[in-house]
Amino acid sequence: MSDSAPGHDEPSPNIGPEGSIADPSHSLTAYRSPLHRWWTYQRERFPVVAHGVLILAFSSSAVCFSSLLRGHVDLPSLLVVTVAFGTAFLFFLQLRIADEFKDYEEDSRYRPYRAVPRGLVSLRELGVVGVLAAALQLVLGLVLDPSIVLLLAVAWVYLALMSKEFFVGEWLKGHPVPYLISHMVIIPLVDFYATACDWWPVGQGMPHGLGWFVAASYSNGIVIEIGRKIRAPADEETGVNTYSAIWGPRNACLVWVGALLTTAVCATLAAGQIDFMAPVAMVMTVMLLTAGVVIWCFLAAPTKTRSKLIETLAGVWTILLYLSLGAAPLLLRWWFP
Length: 337
Known about the structure:
This protein has two domains: 1-205, UbiA prenyltransferase (Tetracycline Repressor, domain 2); 208-337. Helices cover 69% and strands 0% of the residues. The protein has helices at residues 34-45, 48-69, 78-102, 104-110, 123-144, 149-163, 169-173, 176-183, 186-199, 210-227, 243-247, 249-272, 277-300, 304-335.
């Protein structure tokens, strides 16, 4: 599998059929301004605004949930939220960069319209960005609490192993389930670090009940990953290993619904740790029913538009999941003590 980080895999408007470049000047030389090149890159491969909203909900709610577990209902400090969000955002950027390196040969062969193969940015430039991101993560950690860098290092090591496909890349390519299970571990690692931005500096140790939140984060990573790789049969591409191509649309949808159910159970149990079970259960129920309708419509008539609805719903589900677990209950208790 490829593209473990969230992103958009559609060709840009200037790309012709079958991956050919419609405009011969649409290459590195056509982007004389570095700002123009990087703006185009983020639009195609790592939309900053769209990802930023998801990651802000993800990271801020991790901080809020941890604070609630510790019995604190005050709003988290700006420093804590900034470190959690900034570090998580940079991790997801590094995931995208790692994918560009891992998938370069396949992209050059099957998807020449993508940013790196067509010369929009180079792997060397992306490598520099990845190193700078790590340096900024280190600075953020040191500013918050120098000892928290130990947790940061754990996530870095796992990310490095992922970038090398755990040294069993060929085997993983032929086994989509182990690939999915192993690559999604990075999500709860990042989430755990975000929670640690709250509890680590105060020296109270990991709060009881955090495990269900981390479990929900893991299964939700699977929701996002599968949701963005379910396509209509007419939209499948040679060399692109979507789950709908590997398992078939029906089975891929069933697995996706299973991931939604697992996430809902873990989230509800996590909410029970902060006495917010009923509201979270209601949100999850409404979203599960909505997902059922979307899946039914897609399987009845699998089109590109309906497959995009699945991806969009995965994003909406993620935002509501995290906000209902962290930010919403903390704000309610802070506003109505």
